[in-house]
Amino acid sequence: MSTESSSTVARVLKPTILILIAIVAISSRLFSIIRFESVIHEFDPWFNYRTTQHLVKNGFYDFWNWFDEKSWYPLGRVVGGTVYPGIMVTSALIHNVLHFFNFPVDIRNVCVFLAPMFSGLTAFSAYLLTKELKDSSAGLLAAAFLGVAPGYISRSVAGSYDNEGIAIFLLVFTFYLWIKAVKTGSAFFGLLTALFYFYMVSAWGGYVFITNLVPLHAFTLLLMGRYSNRLYVSYSTFYAVGTLLSMQIPFVGFQPTRTSEHMAALGVFGLLQLYAFAELVRGYIPPKQFRTLLKGGVAAVAVIASFGLTILSFSGVIAPFTGRFYSLYDTGYAKIHIPIIASVSEHQPTAWTSFFFDLQMLIFLFPAGVYLCFKELKDEHVFIILYSVFASYFAGVMVRLMLTLTPVVCVSAAIAYSTLLDTYLETSEHVLASTKPVIVAAPPAPAVIEAPTAATSEAKAAGKKAAAKAAAAAAAAAAKSTDADAKAQAKSAVASGEKKRFPIFNLDSRLLVILQLTWFLFMFAWHCTYVTSGSYSSPSIVLASRQHDGSQMIIDDFREAYYWLRKNTKEDAKVMSWWDYGYQMAGMANVTTLVDNNTWNNTHIATVGKAMSTSEEVSYKVLRQHDVDYVLILFGGVIGYSGDDINKFLWMIRIAEGVYPNEVKETNFFTPRGEYKVDHDATKTMRESLMYKMSYYRFAELYGGGNAVDHVRNARMPAEGPTLSVLEEAYTTENWLVRIYKVKDLDNLGRDLKDSTAFDKGRVRKVSSLKKK
Amino acid sequence: MAVISRTLLLTLLLALVALLSASSSSTSSLFAQAQPQNDNEALLQKKVSRLEAKAAKNKGVIQLDSLAFEDVMAKPRNYSMVVLFTAISPEFNCVPCLNFDPEYKMVAAGWSKLANKSQLFFSILDFKAGQAIFQKFGMNSAPSVLYFPSSSSISGDPSQDRYDFGKSGFQAEPFAAWLQARSGIRVPVQRPFDFMGLAVKVLGTFTAVLAVTLFARKGRKIFTSKYFWSTISMIIIFVMISGHMWNQIRNPPYSMPTQQGRSGFIASGFQNQFGLETQIIAVLYSLLTGATIGLIAVVPRIENTVGQRAAVWVCMGMFTLVFSILIQVFKLKNPGYPFTLMFR
């Protein structure tokens, strides 16, 4: 086949493959929709969905100024200023465009299918990114990997309408644009990077990763002595425009100039300006004077900068690290100081099984790809290396950040895999004829080493005489050459000529490798489908279980309970529950909630925790103070649903204890042997807590008095269950998963609620209580 | 009538006398008791000064045994006691005891420098010296810290008299905070300045600077060599993807004794792992990556046909074998995993 016709075929094949990859990426995310129905499946996204509905109904400005009095009662929440609006605006835009063309698509469906649609785009941007690093065949592999990798699917299945759904696309695409900008040195691509960075800032708090990784890349290039006008133009454009744009998001505001997370970007920006200025000055004055000037300049800048930083951080203009961010570095910090951060399961560290489960064979092809990047080591490869190292650290600290690791693993593994294919598929004529840089494996010639050497030491020990000398020499050399890259490439080409590479001689070796690799690809695809179908596509608002005969049983208690709330309570009813269910309740039951998944106010959450974990008398006061009409809890003891409130109870206690150390004590909930028990051995405090009472109220009756067994904790419950006097049972769903209690009004006769309950039950009041009155 | 009134008057008189006598007797008894109480106070004073002397001798810590414990605890006492129940002797091999010991002594030493030091005494009861007391309090683990308030003070919540190591940890600061919350007395913690650490740091910096200046050329070559950096990056990546951070945060045991055919170095459960287990995984991963790099970078360098074929077969064989082992290990963690490679 001639090269021309093969390139024509490739031209047709590439888009076809990309489209197929997008189709696969989208359709493998549809399990939950096909099995159940097109609804928002998770807890958190209900808020996004609710705000999107508001946006579509009332327009952008109303959304922007929306004060939501239905959440965080009685505080309320300024929605416009406390959200990342990217995902809502995106869906509203898609919705409006479709309606403009007379496609009457419901906003719910736009929201449900948003993440899968964007995953197709993510695959495409992975292709673009990898193409810049190696070639288009590696790009196609990367696109295919990222399209089906469970690490990304976990947060982007249909019905999970979360920020991450679009944010990963933006992350990868911004990185692609940045690499393009550094490669071409064009302000246009720098500007595009800034624009997409802005989109990312508006979509996800993880934008901080970009704000730190890009400056780190620029800084590393500077240290390696790879300063170039391309770097200067692209970074300056990106930083200036990107920062100004990002400050337009109210939630971000002035953070980019104040908080430590953003300081690196600012610092590198300043450094680049100084460096560029020094380069400029160097051209105009003789080397000797320049050296003196440089020394003085460096010293002055260092002194001014350190003074400025100290003053600013002590006077409080620069904020210290915020809690969530800090917990990434000092992993013990969150555990001691902020239980609410530690309580979120996404913030737990990652066990090795999670890495393998989410990435399968990619996880060990990934270091091989990093190795290949080291071999090439152009500017863009430096970026991938930095990204790999930092993302793997962050993914190790927090399960959630697996999401930022997945793209680079896919890209890097694709580079390794396609290099393998290149090596073992190439015919011998091909190798001899082409001088493809793909498999160039050249240790750089000594001269190439020398330049970065000098510059690095210049940055490290700026005052050193010898270093300054060497730096000057290196810089002069760099100034002479118009394009340092071209030179380096030429050198490495020469070097590669010295170290010979041979084709693979034997057909059996080729066949062995290729067949095995293909087999592993199949296994990877099976693994991904298995994981996606089995683990990441089970919605949390509808539970499915298999019965003994194999038929499926759907447990739809959540929606049952929320529907009951929607239909049977007055419009402004206040419902208290643990924060996990806040967004869902607001979205599905349309009631006012006390706390929700936006955990900004620890005290308020602790107050709810206190109401749940103290005795009836104490918590009744709290309930009355907060105008609570209903209390909603989850109880899994009947069907064995382990994510219920009794299992989360310890976190409620811990968080409450953090704020009310005198009223709630964790130790009182443990038996003397240090066990957390709910049966006969349960402590008095445990048995008197409101949560315990609500969970097990009338539980024993379900079993006819005897043998009541809690299926989650495998505990045999006492036959005499707890009694309630300040609450009355309002509704319990079919499988007892959700229980709703109504808070009683004060007694009409001014009696204690305990006494009045006893009276209603027909019990004669004790003589002692009569005497008191 | 008159008789009745007279008797009434009489009884009234009698009652008055009785009352007077009673009050006088009570005052007399008060006087009588004053002497022994003064004695008691003097005794107490003596005891306190004895304790002070003991504490002063030993940097604020009083070493107790069973007898001394009973003596010190005897009521009434106008001081509070903190007792550390510990087992410091090497045969008990109590690592947390050894860890907490210096922290405890540091708090005690800080306390002994204050003016109001006789309010509160720090003491240590070692298991060897006070087994009886350990039994009396039902202590079956060490270290434990108990707080005994002075007999005059209203003892608050007695359930809080035991310091919770599990929650607060072995550091001096949370311990002092607990003590302060419990006793209402301000207990400062002054960490002694770490001269040793400073010396090490200074020496280290000096050596590093010296090394850099002496081996400037070689050092520079190392720091600018991409082999150096690639090695470091690869190590970081392997360590991280094999779940090392989990170990850092959760502090699992390194391995467990093998029992009932269950291997002791692979933890059961998907979200659980041992220290050794992550190392095994790291080795497996690096073998797999090594085989890949071998196939990419080493094999095409071999000119000899036979050698090249052998290298391909070795690399690919190792790849497949290690991958199958990895899947097998994963199946141990996740028994429902349906795929296998070489082993069934």
UniProtKB/TrEMBL annotation, chain A:
Record function comment: Catalytic subunit of the oligosaccharyl transferase (OST) complex that catalyzes the initial transfer of a defined glycan (Glc(3)Man(9)GlcNAc(2) in eukaryotes) from the lipid carrier dolichol-pyrophosphate to an asparagine residue within an Asn-X-Ser/Thr consensus motif in nascent polypeptide chains, the first step in protein N-glycosylation. N-glycosylation occurs cotranslationally and the complex associates with the Sec61 complex at the channel-forming translocon complex that mediates protein translocation across the endoplasmic reticulum (ER).
Catalytic reactions on record: a di-trans,poly-cis-dolichyl diphosphooligosaccharide + L-asparaginyl-[protein] = N(4)-(oligosaccharide-(1->4)-N-acetyl-beta-D-glucosaminyl-(1->4)-N-acetyl-beta-D-glucosaminyl)-L-asparaginyl-[protein] + a di-trans,poly-cis-dolichyl diphosphate + H(+)
Pfam families from the UniProt entry: STT3, STT3-PglB_core
Keywords: Endoplasmic reticulum, Glycoprotein, Glycosyltransferase, Magnesium, Manganese, Membrane, Metal-binding, Transferase, Transmembrane, Transmembrane helix
Subcellular location: Endoplasmic reticulum membrane
The organism of origin for this protein: Linnemannia elongata AG-77
Protein name (record): Dolichyl-diphosphooligosaccharide--protein glycosyltransferase subunit STT3
Pathway annotation from the record: Protein modification; protein glycosylation
GO CC terms of this entry: oligosaccharyltransferase complex
Family from the record: Belongs to the STT3 family.
Cofactor(s) required, per the database record: Mn(2+); Mg(2+)
Parts of the chain that traverse the membrane: 12-34, 78-98, 110-130, 136-153, 165-181, 187-210, 231-251, 263-285, 297-319, 355-374, 381-399
Gene Ontology annotations of biological process type: post-translational protein modification; protein N-linked glycosylation via asparagine
GO molecular-function terms, A-Z: dolichyl-diphosphooligosaccharide-protein glycotransferase activity; metal ion binding
Entry EC number(s): 2.4.99.18
Oligosaccharyl transferase STT3 N-terminal domain: residues covered: 13-413
Stretches assigned to the STT3/PglB/AglB core domain: 574-624
Membrane topology: Multi-pass membrane protein
Automatic annotation (TrEMBL), chain B:
UniProtKB keywords: Endoplasmic reticulum, Membrane, Signal, Transmembrane, Transmembrane helix
Transmembrane regions: 195-215, 227-246, 280-299, 311-330
Family per record: Belongs to the OST3/OST6 family.
Annotated GO CC locations: oligosaccharyltransferase complex
Annotated signal sequence range: 1-22
Protein name as catalogued: Uncharacterized protein
Biological processes, Gene Ontology terms: protein N-linked glycosylation via asparagine
Location in or out of the cell: Endoplasmic reticulum membrane
InterPro entries xrefs: OligosaccharylTrfase_OST3/OST6, Thioredoxin-like_sf
Organism: Linnemannia elongata AG-77
Membrane topology recorded in Swiss-Prot or TrEMBL: Multi-pass membrane protein
Free-text function comment from the UniProt entry: Subunit of the oligosaccharyl transferase (OST) complex that catalyzes the initial transfer of a defined glycan (Glc(3)Man(9)GlcNAc(2) in eukaryotes) from the lipid carrier dolichol-pyrophosphate to an asparagine residue within an Asn-X-Ser/Thr consensus motif in nascent polypeptide chains, the first step in protein N-glycosylation. N-glycosylation occurs cotranslationally and the complex associates with the Sec61 complex at the channel-forming translocon complex that mediates protein translocation across the endoplasmic reticulum (ER). All subunits are required for a maximal enzyme activity.
